[in-house]
Amino acid sequence: MNALFRLAPFTSEEASRQWLVHLAETAIAAVHPFSLLPDQLPEKPAGRTIVVGAGKAAAAMASALELAWVERARNNDEAIDLDGVVVTRYKHGADCQYIEVLEASHPMPDALGEQAAKRMLEAVKNLSEDDQVISLISGGGSALMTLPAAGISLKDKQAVNKALLRCGAPIRDINTVRRHLSGIKGGRLAAHAHPARVVTYLISDVPGDDPTLIASGPTLPDNSKPLDALEILERHAIEVPDNVRQHLMANHDAPQASSPEFARDQSIILARASDALEAARLSAEKSAVDIRVLGDDLEGEARDLGIAQARMVRKLQSEIKRPLLVLSGGETSVTVRGDGRGGRNVEYLLGLFDTLEGAEGVYALAVDTDGIDGSEDNAGAVFGPESWQRAKALQLSAKDYLNRNDAYSFFAAINDLVVTGPTRTNVNDFRAILVLPRPA
Question: CA–CA separation, 51 vs 123, rounded Å?
Fold first, then answer.
């Protein structure tokens, strides 16, 4: 980015939009496994090292780990002695020589995700105290590593998962249910690897960064109970098959923190949403702009957050004397009422867009840091004042599109989608609003 752009990025519509895109790219780069894992390698054990993992960043984490591990082994004239298996979302793979990379479906689990989970349990069985398991966990891993508990079918889990996603349940609720219907999550993978030591590296996509919630914590103890999962299903009015209800009522506890399986284990959060926001903030400081960070853990209905932030922006614009950047992160949800297309980032932006009603001097971007907004091909979208002109020329009603959950189609029609492809990391949503002062 040249000096002129850093000092005066707001001289045109295109410059302002590209500045926001640049901030998003900076944020994502700061939380990528290749910039994080090489400096965090565990020591080589006396025995074997087995790698397992799941998530949208799992393949990139495996590749970064493998490259650093091999380099260290060669520098120290040691045997490489590394193998294992990880699973990631379709088209999120990466090249590895020693660690096998599998791909499966997200957000709806499929049979390949079930096979991947079984492969991981097989990979860590019959280990000794001298062995080490490295677990690479990131957002999306809960759906990708799906192994139904005894008496529950993959079809049962798919039905419950679909209902939770459509009702707008927060990720904390979704993952609590997933843990208690699983044969591998909620610390069960670590228990299966015992007595080997398990070192877990995490890239957090959950508000609050509770390690046990990331990908439903396959190698970490679970603090919730099966009846908690049942309460969540009842609270969201989700009907479940009788066998699922009976399984939860039987109250099969996951391994607890006091269990000996976890005595020697370690967990390290490599990256979180706050790291992405901080990288963007530091980059933005190079420009003549004030900065306000609203937090990295914003939740709730995506459109409602957009509406609330639009009202905040209107008030701020009447008060500021120079450009203001508003940053936020977290994970919103979408209650599906219509049959349109779109993820939570474009739904948030459409709520913002509709409520701003053509306000001048406001630019906004929202992307999922994994590069995929929901199940579409875009990361999110970006809009500016000219977006309202294009929408008006095409006679598009933002409210109508919002009512049918069709934000993807709206922003596609005005050419405002942001398409990055898979980034192979994931610390959740990145949102940035640039507010310019009203002309005197």
Answer: 9
pLDDT in tens, the chain (440 residues): 444 344 456 778 999 999 999 999 999 999 999 999 999 999 999 999 999 999 999 999 999 999 999 999 999 999 999 999 999 999 999 999 999 999 999 989 999 999 999 999 999 999 999 999 999 999 999 999 999 999 999 999 999 989 998 898 888 899 899 999 999 999 999 999 999 999 999 999 998 999 999 999 999 998 889 999 999 999 999 998 999 999 999 877 777 878 888 999 999 999 999 999 999 999 999 998 999 999 999 999 999 999 999 999 999 999 999 999 999 999 999 999 999 999 999 999 999 999 999 899 999 999 999 999 988 999 999 999 999 999 999 999 999 999 999 999 999 999 999 999 999 999 999 999 999 998 76
pTM over the 0.90 mark:
yes
Q: How far apart, in whole angstroms, are the C-alpha atoms of residue 278 and residue 223?
A: 30
* Mutual angle of helices 302-317 and 344-356, in 10-degree steps: 40
> Directed axis angle between helix 226-235 and helix 171-180, to 10°?
130
Q: Give the CA distances from residue 30 to residues 77, 248, 281, 316, in Å, rounded to whole numbers and listed in that order.
A: 32, 40, 12, 29
Please tell me the distance from the alpha carbon of residue 251 to that of residue 242, in angstroms, as a whole number.
Answer: 15
Task: Give the H or E element holding residue 398.
Answer: helix 398-403
Q: Are 62 and 136 in contact (CB under 8 A)?
A: yes
Residue 85: what residue type? V
Residue 28: CB atoms within 10 Å = 25
Measured CA to CA, the distance from residue 214 to residue 209 in angstroms comes to 8
Rg (CA), the chain: 23
Residue type, 313: V
Q: Residue 102 pairs with which residues in a beta bridge?
A: 87
Beta bridge partners of 329: 430
Name the nearest CA neighbour of 117 among 196, 14, 219. Answer: 219
Structural tokens at position 132: 């080490």
Other CB atoms within a 10 A radius of the CB of residue 162 amount to 14
| CA distances for 169 relative to 83, 328, 424, angstroms | 37, 20, 25
Q: For residue 435, what are its two tokens?
A: 């507010």
| Pairing of the two strands 380-383 and 362-368 | antiparallel
Using DSSP bridges, classify how beta strands 99-104 and 83-89 pair: parallel, antiparallel or unpaired: parallel
* 344: its two tokens: 């939570």
Copy the structure tokens of residue 92: 């999120």
